[in-house]
Amino acid sequence: MNGRIKEMNNKLRILIAEDSEDDALLEILELKKAGFESKYERVETFEAMEKAILEKSWDVILCDYQLPQFNGLAAIDLLQETGIDIPLIIVSGAIGEETAVECMRFGACDYIMKNNMSRLPLAVKRELKETESRLKRKRAEETLRESEERYRTILQNIEEGYYEVDTAGNLTFFNDSVCQILGNTRAELMCVNDRQHADKENSQILYQVFKKVFITGEPSKRVDYELIREDGTKRNIEVSVSLIRNTSGKPIGFRGIMRNVTEQKLAENKLLQTLESLRKSFSTLIQVMVSVVKTRDTYTAGHQARSANIARAIANELGLPKDQVEGIHMAGSIHDIGKLSIPSEILSKPAKLSEIEFSLIKGHSWSGYEILKYVESPWPLAEIVYQHHERMDGSGYPRGLKGDEILIGARIMAVADVVESMASHRPYRPALGINAALEEIENNKETLYDTDVADACLRLFREKDFKLEGECLN
């Protein structure tokens, strides 16, 4: 950790937009436990927040989403209008997933649920580092502009390419590294258009970047594109672009830094291939778990497979990201793995279970969590398995979670599990049928089942002709 962040740990300047003094103190206490000594100010109104931002310096802003006079989106908009670079983190106790995503899209750095405050120190630490990185980049660019003439000689000796072009994109100045990157001599490159070494697609990418910089006057972020060298070989290039103005402020060209990132891209691609290999290995592990369950209890295996298919269909119907859908399907495939700890004669008992036997059955979600909690996964599989019998009103088990305390994956699994269980044959009763299952979901949405999830499930079966498929339906 760099020096500035260490100093911040000793005296972190925090602006808290929060109408509850108790909640603000809890946030400060959580940061203090993580080693942050804080100096903070709490505001409740839009005007007070604006005044605090403009008149004082802050390292981070913690903002409740819903305040009496304004909300988190208004706070984000206010901060962006000032142009001051301060990380803003939404800290809320009643914010849905869609609202959280919207806040992130509009500029919030993160969102923390008040019932999970342990994430706050890590989020603050990360955003302090990000702010420091942005500040360093900004200072570097300002120094480059202010010291242009003084550094021209030095630029010839740096590894990164430095270039200048006129408003038409023709090279007017460049260092030797640009020649090495492009594979041309200095004489060959002088007055050559910067897009000459790119194909049609990449040429258009460069054109749009330069056009935006010219119109807005703002430097671009680093842009990746592929160039074709004089010898026909290709290179992955990272380039930055900023506007050059004359003494009267008129744009006369562009300047920037060019880096050959071909090896970095190759390494990234190799890493992606490795990650894909690990993903396949993890998928194989899941299949092994499924096979173990099937070997011991074919009913549970069939139930898991069909429930997983329903869960995947619901997740797709809700428009969740592809990767999240995959994780929910995997969790569904093993959501009853905890039943391995239950005697098979109880699982297959063709009569009503005793109170003790049912208590053992209810323990399967905890057992499944214990089996999976140390399995490294890109998805919260263990927690979904742990929560799939929780209900929105808190009447579920094993922890009595309710509402947003329950992961979206577990809310989906809860509906999928009930539909499959009721529609299919059970050891102690015949199948009740899909209509009875859907009536259960419809009659108890909002209370037991997430409304959006329930509605998505009902649409699938009633409007989109989704069918239960798999073994042991009857």
TrEMBL record:
What does the record list as GO biological process? phosphorelay signal transduction system
Domain (PAS) ranges: 147-190
Q: Could you tell me the superkingdom of the organism this chain comes from?
A: Bacteria
Q: Name one Pfam family in it.
A: Response_reg
Query: Coiled-coil regions in this chain?
Result: 125-157
Q: Which residues form the Response regulatory domain?
A: 13-129
For the HD-GYP domain, which residue ranges apply? 278-473
Question: Which keywords accompany this UniProt record?
Answer: Coiled coil, Phosphoprotein
Residues with the 4-aspartylphosphate modification: D64
> Which SUPFAM superfamilies does this one have?
CheY-like (SSF52172), HD-domain/PDEase-like (SSF109604), PYP-like sensor domain (PAS domain) (SSF55785)
Annotated ranges, domain PAC: 221-273
For this entry, the protein name equals PAS domain S-box protein
